Amino acid sequence: MAYEYDDQNIFAKILRGEIPNTTVLETEHTLAFRDIAPQAPEHVIVIPKGAYVTYDHFANSATEEEIVDYTRTIGRICNDLGVSPGLDGQGYRVISNAGAAGVQEVPHLHMHILAGRPLGRMLEK
Ligand code: AMP
């Protein structure tokens, strides 16, 4: 089944300016903002501006320009937050939940960038 995008999801509303957000970085194709319920001292959500549901949807369907913009924006945020191990930061985790098994709550692709404390093992169970 092909992906169907629900334009009433909360991140679509953020992109349309219907709901406020605390923007960290905005580019032509990407928006990054603070998670409303942070699970670490640094918790940034990074979304493409295009209508993509999951990472595989984006990776298979987005333009190269969108993919480069999105990927570079994530890299820049890691640098800006000071968490990149390559720049003497303490490290971070990037997570993208997809679908039911991935426990995705918002059906618009997003990466979580988490940092600022020891994050434990990747999966608890
Ligand atoms: P996921 O379970 O991967 O779909 O994660 C959705 C994330 O979106 C959660 O971490 C929520 O705290 C976050 N979230 C939901 N609504 C908002 C909002 N209005 N602004 C910022 N983050 C939000």
Notes on the structure:
Helices cover 25% and strands 20% of the residues. It has helices spanning 10-15, 55-61, 64-81; strands at residues 23-26, 30-34, 42-48, 92-95, 111-115. It has a 5-stranded antiparallel β-sheet, with helices on one face. Strand 2 (30-34) and strand 3 (42-48) form a beta hairpin.
CATH topology: HIT family, subunit A
The radius of gyration is 14 Å
**What is the topology, as strand order, of the major beta sheet?**
1-2-3-5-4
Number of strands: 5
Q: What share of residues is helical?
A: 10-25%
User: What is the rounded distance between the termini?
Assistant: 29 Å
Chain oligomer state? single chain
Nearest-integer average pLDDT: 97
Into which percentage range does the β-strand content fall?
A: 15-25%
Specify the CATH class: Alpha Beta
Structural class: alpha+beta
- Main sheet summary: 5 strands, antiparallel
Level-2 CATH architecture? 2-Layer Sandwich
Q: What small molecules are bound in this structure?
A: adenosine monophosphate
Q: Give the overall shape.
A: globular
Q: How many domain regions?
A: 1
